[in-house]
Design goal:
The protein has 11 helices and 13 strands. It is of the alpha+beta class.
Length: about 375
């Protein structure tokens, strides 16, 4: 197999949060949302939302909000979650948009994002964006590979047992796919044509034909779902980061996080086993995602100065409180200055400057 066996690559699911510094909505705009929500809740026997037109687009408004998002609007293209209070994303993004597969493929994921970003900017001041979920996928013109779980043909560098989990999927007695992992990152490998029979996304077949599919042979999808914590560990915060690092994500996921290998009974070291021919196709598909820059998964988040300042204040309070308790007759001012002289000795230590340089070098690498 070669790269010509890949019939489609891209992003099939995307969720982005927008940090909002201020809403431009009038009182009647909020009232319209509230009235639609009341209408949805008035129905005792239906969980369906209420139709509403919001900022020029038609949606169905859910009966209830979720996790701080008071209003949840759904259309055939997107789901938009809105928190009514704007504070620049101090707690979480005030507007969260989940893009549906059809919308992403119809406009391309970049075009779909730009369109929604422009629309949100019409009624809110955007302070920034944050990617909360992305699904990268490759469709391969090949049958679902056979994987022997007992022979340990699945090789992963997942960091914890909780992060990695394996499961087979059957339709009747026929094996239709596998899933690996759970939580912040997981992989799915499955018979896409069989899945289309249930999802009715037959337009995928038209896209495959445009890329050389003969209309008869099997198509297997390799898909990785990534959520916020994993994306952060791969240094993906914004949509711009995502665009720049798609190649790095796919390379890490198919070369380090997961590999399917052919068992070599003469070699006990699985790292030396050859990847299955199917998996080699998935690996070389990295070229379709862009330039690989060498971004690596980090094990430690860069500490924020504000958090360190809060920690330092807590330590200072405890130190002074301990001094006052030890010397109950000592005035607070004298206790503070006594503690400061103790701390000052750390800065005068000849090793302090070297320790700062080493720590700064380490943080620069994160």
């Amino acid at each position: 197999m070669g790269n010509q066996d890949v019939v489609l690559t891209g992003i099939d699911t995307l969720a982005v949060g927008f940090r909002i510094s201020e809403y431009k909505l009038a009182a009647e705009d909020w009232q319209g949302l509230e009235h639609a929500k009341d209408a949805a809740q008035a129905s005792l026997f239906s969980n369906e939302g209420s139709p509403v037109t919001f900022q020029g687009r038609d949606f169905s408004l859910a009966r209830k909000g979720s996790r701080g998002y008071e209003y949840i609007l759904t259309s055939d293209d997107v789901t938009v979650q809105i928190a009514p209070r704007a504070d620049g994303g101090a707690s979480y993004p005030e507007v969260r948009v989940t893009f549906r597969s059809t919308y992403l493929w119809r406009h391309g994921w970049r075009g779909a994002f730009r369109s929604v970003e422009s629309w949100v900017a019409e009624w809110a001041d955007i302070a920034g964006d944050k990617v909360s979920r992305v699904d990268l996928m490759v469709d391969i013109n090949a049958a679902l590979p056979e994987v022997n779980f007992r022979a340990r043909e699945v090789v992963s560098r997942a960091r914890t047992r909780k992060e990695f989990y394996m499961e087979r999927h059957l339709t009747g007695l026929e094996e239709t796919g596998y899933s690996f992992g759970r939580g912040d990152v997981l992989a799915r490998i499955y018979d896409k044509r069989a899945e289309i029979e249930n999802s009715l996304k037959v337009w995928f077949e038209d896209m495959w034909r445009e890329r050389g599919w003969d209309g008869e042979t099997p198509v297997t999808r390799v898909e990785f779902q990534m959520r916020r914590n994993f994306l952060r560990s791969m240094q993906v915060e914004t949509v711009q980061d995502l665009d720049a690092q798609l190649g790095d994500l796919w390379k890490y996921l198919t070369r380090e996080w997961l590999q399917l290998k052919d068992e070599d009974k003469h070699d006990g070291n699985r790292s030396r086993w050859e990847p299955k021919s199917f998996w080699k196709v998935a690996m070389v598909a990295v070229t379709a995602f862009g330039v690989v820059t060498g971004v690596a998964r980090i094990t430690q988040r860069r500490p924020k100065r504000e958090a360190l300042e809060r920690l330092s204040r807590g330590v200072a309070v405890s130190l002074v409180a301990t001094t006052v308790t030890t010397y109950p007759d000592m005035p607070l001012t004298a206790a503070v200055w006594g503690c400061w002289r103790t701390i000052k000795r750390f800065f005068e230590d000849p090793d302090f400057e070297l320790a700062v340089q080493r720590r700064a070098a380490g943080l620069a690498m994160l």
